[in-house]
Amino acid sequence: MKITKDTTLAKVLDIKGAEKILSEFQMPCLGCAMAQMEMDSLKLGDICSMYGINLNKLLEELNIIAKKKNGK
């Protein structure tokens, strides 16, 4: 699975190690009660835009662990 700006937070969190990376980027959604209800619709690109998170760097790191999960 390739992670893009349109990947939902719910799909990203299915990947082992993704929560740690999101925390390192100070993604506020992980502890937000509202986000828990919207995880299936929150897209990485939108979240990064709202909170000033470097989307390209985040995608780079998430795709590294996603490839490891798939054994590629």
Low-confidence stretches: none
Mean pLDDT: 90
Q: What's the main sheet like? A: none
Helix content: 55-70%
The total tally of domains equals 1
- SSE-based structural type: mainly alpha
Oligomer: single chain
Task: Report on the architecture of this protein.
By secondary structure, the chain is mainly α. The protein has one domain (9-69). 57% of the residues lie in helices and 0% in strands. The protein has five helices and no strands. It has helices at residues 9-13, 18-24, 33-38, 44-51, 55-69. The protein is globular. The protein starts with 8 loop residues before the first helix and ends with a helix. The mean pLDDT is 90.
Tags for this entry?
72 residues; mainly alpha; 0% strand; 57% helix
Q: Would you summarize the structure shown here?
A:
By secondary structure, the chain is mostly helical.
Furnish the topology, listing elements before pairings.
Elements: H1 9-13, H2 18-24, H3 33-38, H4 44-51, H5 55-69
